[in-house]
Amino acid sequence: MPLYLVATPIGNLRDLTERAREVLAACDAVVAEDTRHSGQLLKHLGLNKPFISLPAFDESARVEPIVERLRQGASLALVTDAGTPAVSDPGSLLVREAVAAGVQVVPVPGASAVIAAVSVSGFAEGRFHFAGFLPRKPAARTEMLSEIKQLRAQLAFYEAPQRLRETLLELRSALGDRPALVARELTKVHEELARGTLSQLADHFSGEVRGEAVIVVSGASESEPEDPKELESEVRTRLARGERPKEISEALSGRYPKRAVYQLALKLKG
Asked: Which of 121, 179, 235, 257 is most buried, with most CB under 10 Å away?
């Protein structure tokens, strides 16, 4: 009764692993984000399998019957339109419910757009923070970007073509005009790896853009100045919640110097 999470190609069909092909051939049915899209992949593989639809807009309503089939002994393979299921794609709720029901969940790794883009970024930071798609609501976007601004790590985002320029400009405003990479149409015929500052890339993509993109932005530099007003506001908020200066300095140590936060908290508390 396993639920297999099968990574599918993000463009080039030859990127499908042999193991993924074997799992798709052996499973009882395929759970797909878009059955028409996944049907083309199975047709290419010469496979004829029953489909269970799991679109993003209706995932919560369709999960329970799928989990019940798994409980009854069915072997199901979850795929999305491209890449790894449950990573900025439908499937995370199904995985959660399957785990809660005691169902074995098995990853079948393969193509991932964010891993492909980070691997060719050329930035010095050896780690990265994957933020997926930015929230649609402006306040939530601002909050997220504020949280990750000081990370000494590459920042990776997914974005749709029609919003690419707008997002690049917003990232420049929130993070500064940092070096960045836009990886568009990865592994496809018109693959593009565009490099430059965020403002340069916004100019580059000022016209019509096709294909979803991965944006990779270099991390905050050691010398990048902190925003004292932002820090003071956060420390005041935490003090009002009853947190102690030592707890606050520990909580914010990933974004600000620990000693500076501790001294500020003592000053504001006094």
From this structure: 235
